[in-house]
Amino acid sequence: MGWFWADNNNAPPSSASSSATPPVRRPYTLTMFTSLTFNKPACPMHATPPQNTLFPPRNAAQPTPSGSCPVRAPNEPTSSSPPSSISKLNPLNYMPSDLSQTRDTRQTIHLPTEREASSIPRGDINGNWEYPSPQQMYNAMLRKGYDDTPEDAVESMVAVHNFLNEGAWAEIIDWERRFSRGLGYGWEACRRGEEGFQENADRIANLRDIAAPKLLRFQGRPNEMTPKARIVEFMGRMYPAKFGCEPPFDRHDWYVQRRTVDGQTREVRYVIDYYAGPSEPTGEPVFFLDVRPAVDTPTAAVERMMRWGGDVWHRASGAKAREMASS
Predict the structure, then answer these.
(1) Which of these, 185, 154, 145, 164, lies nearest to 302 by C-alpha position?
(2) Could you tell me the CA-to-CA distances from 48 to 7, 79, 118, 225 in Å, in that order?
């Protein structure tokens, strides 16, 4: 789902945005795309990332300078080796950098080549990420072997893709509003639960505003189920009435630049599971996004426990009922 195009350094910002939401699989209903049918639920625009990042591939045509170290890196091609396909990928999104806007010879209808600017700031330049054009999306799907894609559905697929990415970024913003100012502020924001966060956050955030987060890069990993998704799948087998659902059809890792109150920046990895839910009675498709920081550090683990535990404790302890009775 998270395919952005990164070859335009002057993408204008977009006003599109989504509202803040709870962290557990928020439903996203598409009221404007009621006739979509997809033969393949997984996002097709993915490429396997390099397995060895310690020694990035070198250009095979590059000669070894005189007097340089004679030991070659494990994945350095010899003079007769063809260039690695990984070396042709954009390192910001692991997507081919040479997808053109040219109409394919097998194509029977015209597809727009205009690209829409997202509301998601980039971390490498001033500007926002851009979404692919329908023509680029179609070319990418053909390149990945999706030859049965209906051409007249590509524009709707791009719109759905963009809609879900805007929703995922809104979820990340919701996490950053709580924890970019430190765990102390995070606990104050979480201890009154999800509903109590809004009024508490608005009161405190004005005193300690910080720069908005930025998306540094992202990576699609549709074939690697997250530990949480595995647990949900297992619970669905044990208790299908309560936890039963289809496994996520896609998974993404987004690397976000967080700016702290002392002006420092650090990288935070967010994990996104994409679920398809039952359609609305009117036919609109429904999607659920489960967005949370990856447990790469003890701080990330504490953030997840604070947000989940704060909401559960606030409701289970009767604090919400007492606040309503005293108001």
Answers:
(1) 185
(2) 20, 24, 25, 15
Tokens representing residue 320 in the block? 């919400």
- Dist CA 127 CA 125 (whole Å): 6
Single out the residue of 56, 54, 55, 62 nearest to residue 78, CA to CA: 62
Residue 311 to residue 301: CA distance in whole angstroms = 16
Distance (Å, rounded) from C-alpha 126 to C-alpha 70? 41
What is the pTM assigned to this prediction?
Answer: 0.70
Question: Using a CB cutoff of 8 Å and minimum separation of 24, what contacts does 196-199 make?
Answer: 196/314, 196/320, 196/323, 198/20
At 95-111, the pLDDT tens digits run: 556 667 888 888 899 99
Q: Where are the beta strands (DSSP E) in the chain?
A: 26-29, 89-90, 95-96, 117-121, 128-130, 214-220, 250-259, 265-277, 286-293
pLDDT at 88: 52
Residue that has been written with the tokens 């000669």 in this structure: 63
